[in-house]
């Protein structure tokens, strides 16, 4: 009986973990995503009131890379906790018909916004500043974007780089240099 229980336990551990449920729209739903009216100025104000950064997460039905991010990156406890603690996440559907209001005041569907902002891939994450200059749209205002599925380390490094406002620092360490340093630190055992 003990051997059978060990075999069952091993099989359970081998099964894939699905961290996010699938919504009626075919997009993954994580507990750290916010349901909003998708008025970006209101979303930014709410994010700021909570002391968080606004993140726009574009996905689409059937996206294998979105699934990869949800199953392999967003499901990681360290990443999920970092998102919950630091980001106000609004999910957008690359082909969606839900109306949004851009920072510049233009009302349009999610799919029209994706075209306006030049978004071609999913997932794409836009990281927004705490203040958006008048007249700028979300793509123009974004301090960073993440087009595609990346590993846990790259994703967490970019989220940290944005949250710490390292894009404002005049130390010559752009994201690529910051990420390379973080990889070396992890390899040397100095960070998680």
How would you characterize this protein structure?
The protein is of the alpha/beta class and 192 residues long. It has a domain at 20-149: 3-Layer(aba) Sandwich (Glutaredoxin). The chain is built from eight helices and nine strands. The chain has helices spanning 2-14, 40-49, 64-73, 77-86, 110-116, 138-141, 152-163, 175-187; strands at residues 21-22, 28-29, 33-34, 53-59, 87-93, 99-101, 107-109, 124-127, 144-147. The protein has a five-stranded mixed beta sheet. β1 and β2 (28-29) form a beta hairpin. The longest helix has 13 residues, at 2-14. It is globular, with a radius of gyration of 18 Å. The model is unreliable at 8-18 (pLDDT under 50).
SSE layout:
Elements: H1 2-14, E1 21-22, E2 28-29, E3 33-34, H2 40-49, E4 53-59, H3 64-73, H4 77-86, E5 87-93, E6 99-101, E7 107-109, H5 110-116, E8 124-127, H6 138-141, E9 144-147, H7 152-163, H8 175-187
Parallel strand pairs: 3-5, 4-5
Antiparallel strand pairs: 1-2, 4-8, 6-7, 8-9
Helix pairs in contact: 4-7, 7-8
Protein name: Thiol:disulfide interchange protein
Domain Thioredoxin-like fold: 48-131
Signal peptide: 1-19
């Amino acid at each position: 009986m003990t051997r059978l229980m060990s075999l069952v336990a091993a099989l359970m551990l081998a099964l894939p973990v699905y961290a996010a449920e699938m919504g009626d729209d075919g997009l993954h739903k994580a507990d750290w995503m916010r349901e909003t009216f998708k008025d970006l100025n209101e979303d930014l104000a709410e994010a700021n009131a909570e002391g968080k950064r606004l993140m726009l997460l574009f996905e689409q039905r059937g996206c294998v890379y979105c699934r990869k991010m949800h199953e392999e990156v967003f499901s990681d406890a360290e990443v999920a906790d970092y998102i919950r603690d630091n980001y106000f996440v609004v999910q957008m559907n690359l082909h969606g018909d839900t109306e949004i209001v851009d920072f510049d005041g233009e009302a349009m569907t999610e799919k029209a916004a994706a075209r306006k902002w030049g978004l071609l891939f999913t997932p794409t994450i836009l990281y927004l500043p705490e203040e958006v200059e008048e007249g700028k749209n979300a793509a123009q205002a974004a301090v960073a974007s993440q087009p595609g599925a990346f590993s846990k380390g790259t994703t967490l490094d970019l989220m940290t780089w944005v949250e710490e406002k390292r894009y404002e620092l005049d130390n010559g360490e752009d994201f690529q240099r910051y990420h390379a340093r973080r990889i070396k630190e992890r390899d040397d055992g100095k960070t998680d």
